[in-house]
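Reopening this one. Same input as before:
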Amino acid sequence: MPNLLSDLNPPQLAAVTLPPQHALILAGAGSGKTRVLTTRIAWLISTGQVGPYGILAVTFTNKAAKEMLTRLGGMLPINTRGMWIGTFHGLCNRLLRAHHRDAGLPALFQILDSADQLSAIKRLLKNLNVDDEKFPPRELANFINAHKEQGVRAAHAEVYDDYTRRRVALYAEYDAQCQREGVVDFAELLLRCYELLCRNEPVRRHYQQRFRHILVDEFQDTNILQYKWLKLLAGHGEEAGPAQEEATDEASIFAVGDDDQSIYAFRGAEVGNMRDLEREFGIKNIIRLEQNYRSHGNILDAANALIKNNRTRLGKTLWTDAGPGEAIRVFEGFSDLDEARFVVDEIRELVRDGFARDQVALLYRSNAQSRVLEHQLFTAGVPYRVYGGLRFFDRQEIKHALAYLRLIVNPDDDTAFMRVVNFPTRGIGSRSIEALQEAAHRANSSLYNAAAGLAGKAGAAVGNFIRLVEALRNDTASLALPEVIDHLIEKSGLRQHYLSEKEGSERLENLDELINAATSFVQEESDTLANPADGSPLASFLAHASLEAGEHQAGEGQDAVQLMTVHAAKGLEFDVVFITGLEQGLFPHENSVQERDGIEEERRLMYVAVTRARKRLYLSYAQTRMLHGQTRYCVPSLFLEELPEELLRRVGPAQAFVTAPASHASDVPRARYAETGPDLRGLRIGQNVEHAKFGLGVIVAAEGRGNDARVQVNFGVQGMKWLALDYAKLTPV
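Same output, byte for byte:
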């Protein structure tokens, strides 16, 4: 026990050794939250307060779950296999597999990833003769997922007009199609699990009594339904359901999170869940982990100064005993090309000074910013990797192989059927597919079952494909999982197809790696696979593949500079970080002005970016930037103004033209570049103006000359507006 607790600082120790009670741990960036969570679990088990299988721990990535299990295995002499530690989706998948009949699902139900869901929606629209321009598939997918994440089925969705009514009807049709095919999407996993627990009291009480300690990582990223699911399992209040007289007391919720790092509102994350947890569970003492073990003092002071401008936060102040470190370098370039050249030159100097390339990260708010950075890195011969490239399970050849495997398990899976019915090409054209879809629609059956009724040339071609799938199923029935995949790659024609491609060798290597992935899966999950109740090894592997798709660790272990969006950088850390494009309208993004609490979300995003840096931080911006094929004239981000000047060191050529700190958007450089840029008709960037309709605003960008001249004005609550100077009546203020 002393060894278990010996390396904890006082707040960490207080959190780990709390008695059974609801707790909210505000864990700042780099404050050791994973250590606290893992040690809390180890302490509960080692003190006999709970057994390993009486704990439910929820993470947001499979990587975090695996790290937690690995650490636990090193701390305690226990077998961690079978412990309920995983993501929301992974845990719901596990629970639904065990209770598939009660949930109204087939035993071998399949999981649709986002690409498969989009394909399923496209098929639905086509079958129903719905105009996909009026109802774009991706927008419909977002509409459906947003409702599911709120816990709202189509039958209870609000209808505002005829257009919404039609979308709700398509939501209902989509759910019926998924039920018929025996598939679920990611949002459905959680909603179906929540509904099962709500209506099935014996199942609900079983898990409420089993899990006496519920631990949640990254609590600030939970959405509404995830929070309701947690409250239900904890046996809390109305969420626990009726007839709870015999139920035991509530389980203890141990939530770890940081409201200052809540940056996923666009995905449905509800930062207000933290305050709701504090209020609804009566948490009196919030424990704050404020000692940072990652960054030097100047970086943390900058982060603290920045985030204190947010009004709606629980509040904490990061500190370190590592010393102040270096000043934060601020670069102002004449253009985005100058900015990129500066960044690349600095990287080469850093490498010469002994920094590893893979410990240098280039962060940007928008993917569109990466082009000029990539071009300069390529030109200079600096190895780089764009974090977030195609993931393994998202690659074309892998998805083809998985589709064949899915059909072996479930022939009614129309999404998998459509993906490979004519791949590799076997003479099944679009007309044959349309005839098959019409037959399936008439018979209200899957495409696979409708194939028997298809006549003529189309029937013969599709029949050959059906016989291929049947042969694959029969031939692999007694094979081990890796052998199943090897046999399928060979007999389906995939291997021969990619052998004939000019650049198919990499795809073949990936298919071989799929066999390796299956081998590793069997070895790692041997205990689980030994239980027939958990489904066949193939079905389990397919679920694993679907759950893994959507996570990535690009560039790990490679000596290459890392490029990524700030959102993608969450959870990572680097010795050196460049935050580029710090201009109004870019970071913070112009859309944030029009959204409720949009600027606060952007400021949290900037806070996350700053706290990725361990030793050195660069902030850069440009006076002009090429966006959408046109030159924009920019002013520095308001976030730069919020940083204490004593923490900054200004570098770069543009400094010679500035008579006041660039972070204060001095009129001197702005006026100079306005004169050589667009025709502003006597106005200038940074100037306050008044418009008859929109009121008071400030000019933040400009482009064009003559009749094409226009300016972008920030009108505050009215938002950002592009106005043509030939027509807009702007009065200088």
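So the earlier flakiness isn't reproducible anymore. For the record, The two ends are 69 Å apart (CA to CA).
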